[in-house]
Design the sequence.
């Protein structure tokens, strides 16, 4: 069976650690990036199957990263889940129209993450 890969993009080390534990428990190989620039550079070398993406980050925010990712060769492949505290419907629709596959509110747990990954066909 192919190894599924996940990139967790969040400026919070604690959020990355919690998400990593959950996603590894679902059988993914996990890497981390602290901002959109780091994440884009990672994706240029290795395109992951799934990206858990924070919205508000220094250097490059999640929405900018997502638009640039989707414009790259192969950038349409990863399932992208925004994981954020943004709750405004217009922000959610902005994320989805920029190419996000789904949306998870922070804080999230393993059950929520597993169900969202199932919905987008990643598990």
Sequence:
């Amino acid at each position: 069976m192919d190894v599924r890969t996940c990139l967790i993009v969040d400026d919070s080390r604690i959020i990355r650690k919690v998400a990593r534990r959950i996603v590894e428990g679902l059988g993914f190989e996990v890497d981390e990036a602290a901002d959109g620039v780091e994440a884009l550079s990672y994706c240029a070398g290795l395109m992951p199957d799934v990206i858990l993406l924070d919205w508000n980050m220094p250097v490059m925010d999640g929405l900018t990263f997502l638009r640039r990712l989707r414009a790259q060769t192969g950038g349409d492949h990863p399932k992208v889940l925004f994981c954020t505290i943004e709750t405004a419907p217009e922000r959610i629709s902005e994320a989805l129209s920029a190419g996000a596959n789904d949306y998870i509110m922070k804080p999230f747990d393993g059950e929520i993450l597993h169900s969202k990954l199932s919905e987008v066909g990643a598990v």
Notes: The longest strand covers residues 4-9.
